[in-house]
Amino acid sequence: MKKQGNNSDFVKIIYKENGNFDLALRKRRFCNAKEPLLPCKTYAFGTQNNRFYNALIASLLHKRYVYKKSLHNYRLFLVCLSHFYTYFSVVSFCFTVQQKAIYGSLLANRKTVV
Predict the structure, then answer these.
(1) For each of the chain's 114 residues, which pLDDT tens digit applies?
(2) Where do transmembrane segments lie in this chain (predicted)?
């Protein structure tokens, strides 16, 4: 097996007997390619220290997910807040129109009575 230099990431192309190939992206420091046990089988990746690798990826994704989740909730709050103000501005506008109509009719009736 050739060494890929000092890169932490590399691409390994694995050819099958039928001419198709698989691309496998693996971190070099965590994964080793195993030789196939039978000639009809393809390669399998065995991981060294798999729990540490999974914990590392989970922590990186968790930090990113919480950040995106907080932005999503913030946007949702702003949308709800804008709908709240829009709703109450429409309702208050309707009430002012109704109040003007009521007061206008009362003033008209009062002028005719007085």
Answers:
(1) 445 555 445 555 555 454 444 444 444 444 555 555 555 555 555 545 566 767 777 777 666 555 455 555 555 555 555 555 554 554 444 445 555 555 555 555 555 544
(2) 76-98
- Domain hosting 11: range is 1-48
Report the run of H or E that residue 10 belongs to, with start and end: strand 9-15
Closest CA to 26 of 1, 48, 55, 51: 48
Provide the number of structural domains found in the chain: 1
The residue assigned the tokens 């206008």 is 104
In a 3-state reduction of DSSP, which class is residue 27? strand
- Residue 31 lies inside a defined structural domain of this protein: yes
CA pair distance 114, 104, nearest whole angstrom: 15
Rounded Cα–Cα distance for residues 33 and 80 (Å)? 52
Q: Is residue 18 part of a domain?
A: yes
Is the residue at 26 inside a domain?
yes
- Residue 56 falls within a domain, yes or no? no
Please state, in angstroms and rounded to a whole number, the distance separating the CA atoms of residues 16 and 42.
Answer: 7
